[in-house]
Amino acid sequence: MLVHPSSIDLSSRTLGHLSRQLAARQREIGTRWRRLSACRQALPVLGHLRCGDTYAQLAAGFGVGIATVFRYIREAVEVLVAHAPTLIEAMETIRTKALVILDGTLLPIDRIAADTPYYSGKHKRHGMNVQVLTDPFRRLLWASPALPGATHDLTAARSHGIIDALATAGLKCWADKAYQGAGPLVRVPFRGRRLKGWRRRHNGTHAKIRCLGEQAMATLKGWRLLRKLRCSTDRITDIVKAVLVLHNALT
Fold it and tell me: Is 3's pLDDT higher than 70?
């Protein structure tokens, strides 16, 4: 296999953050020696999450076995997930914000036509449904566990307890038309293509606010592994939470 140098479009601050977390983990479990140091271990992890590099590519580039790369990445993801905010913690953060934006996204996965629970009729592809809360400054506050792509956004939000949590805290939320019927605190646009007067102005203002959440979602998918996940669906929730922690370390 031919190997060539590659780059990761992340700052050294992200590398330092992950390296410190891994070093703390090694001290906790009493690791004496590894083929790669904590800093070197962080590099293939970032290459996998940010660039979508495969285990084989990373193993060849760092001179270790594929199984070693798999263990390193899995350990790093577990370390990062431990620092991911819970929904309760996210609600405490949202209390200090003027508003919160709720949006769902479909993360494409590698599945066949027989896997109907994962097929999204809206997006015409297989994937996993993830609900995300963002603030008006495009900061990602929380990401939900991943559900099969056939799950409707409102159903997913209710099953994760997002709607109840917002109602209990009395927090206002902006969302798209998929969340019609979520309650008075979840503000959605009016339906219809030929709206006039104040309803049309309301939809225009609503769209300007909601687009901030969509922009935050776009930055989340800047982590190219999330553009086409080929791992087990059981691991996708942890991967999304790990990416969220690293993304927030940049901001």
Answer: no
Predicted TM-score (pTM) of this structure:
0.90
- Contacts of residue 165, defined as CB under 8 A and 6 or more positions apart, other chains included, come to 87, 88, 91
- For 145-186, give the DSSP string: PPEETTS-HHHHHHHTTHHHHHHHHT--EE--GGGTTS-TTE
pLDDT digits (tens, 9 = 90+) for 139-157: 999 999 999 999 999 999 9
pLDDT at 196 over 60: yes
State whether residue 201 is helix, strand or coil.
helix
How much is the pLDDT for 111? 73
Joined tokens for residue 162: 């997002």
Contacts of 89 (CB under 8 A, 6+ apart): 142
Collapsing DSSP to helix, strand or coil, 92 comes out as helix
Report in angstroms the alpha-carbon separations of 49 from 76, 106, 181, 236, 239.
11, 17, 36, 12, 8
